[in-house]
Amino acid sequence: MLPTTATTSAPPPLPAPAPGEPHAALFLALGYMRLPELLACWRVCRLLGEAVAGDPLLWRRVAVEPPLSARMTDEVLLKLTARAEGTLRSLHLLGCFRVSDAGLLRIVEHNPCVTELCVPTCTGLTGDGVMKIVQLLHEHKGNINRLRLNGISRMSKHHLDIIMSLMSNGNPQVEEARSELFYNHRAREVLNTNDERPIDVDACPLCTNVRLVFDCTRDDCMKVKDSFPRCRGCYFCVTRCEKCGGCISSEDRAEADLVCSDFMCLDCWLTLPKCSTCNRPYCERHENLMVPLSMPGQFSCHRCMELGMSLESQEDGY
Ligand SMILES: [Zn+2]
Ligand SMILES: [Zn+2]
Ligand SMILES: [Zn+2]
Ligand SMILES: [Zn+2]
Ligand SMILES: [Zn+2]
Prior knowledge:
Elements: H1 24-29, H2 35-44, H3 46-53, E1 61-64, H4 74-82, E2 90-93, H5 101-110, E3 116-118, H6 127-139, E4 146-148, H7 157-167, H8 172-176, H9 184-188, E5 202-203, E6 210-211, E7 213-214, H10 219-224, E8 233-234, H11 250-255, H12 266-271, E9 291-292, E10 299-300, H13 302-317
Helix pairs in contact: 2-3, 4-5, 5-6, 6-7
Bound molecules: zinc ion (ZN) (5 copies).
One zinc ion (ZN) binds near residues 243, 246, 264 and 267.
């Protein structure tokens, strides 16, 4: 954390810039900027532009997120990553649907030291393409140790097995070490930045598709999971509670009705405040839609509120 007060050992102030030149502190800050800010600095003035474009260290880690993702093509990405001059380590592309297998392969060919490739929902990429990239890195004795592939196209168990064995370098312990993934990660951490697993996706034991596969948080399920993983599965195979990540029984689905179209187990449903009119709660992601009422602690859901308003306007019409 940065100190909030100056101390006696504080460094001397940076020299004032010559007229028309950017402050020296701006150059120091470049290393902490995200891609949109770096690109903005690039265009501010010649000096700053040269500092941004000419320092490969600034381009070792490239992260492209919306709204920039929609404009990111192979050519643009190739130009940006070329700034790393072959030293690119980490590439995060979130939803860059215009980036293709061939484009990404060219980038990796120029940067064989890439250790981290996060490409969730880059739908222009395929299982075949990513497999070739990992093969290429393996041939170059690279050390790719982190892949995020959720949402890419045509990814099969065959691709996953080959990628996993290349990444683990034939070490079965690495292949077998599987840390748990709970459903809440999906909603909160799109890039899964804090989790240490080498690959995010797995083959769903129920439908065999390669997707995010969630473990169950329910105590009784966790006890039996090694012998009979009946509720370890992908988002489509197992309905999960939006609050605790546990699987939901058909009785719970019938009884625990939410205002939003999410699902919740009955235990979690019982703990939440409900709409004064329809007695349904919101999940945490949608609780911003609550309309507070004059009675403290009470609220109406947006659906009941809209219904009330449309009834009122109908009455006014008569
Ligand atoms: Zn499944
Ligand atoms: Zn729950
Ligand atoms: Zn379960
Ligand atoms: Zn309601
Ligand atoms: Zn919800």
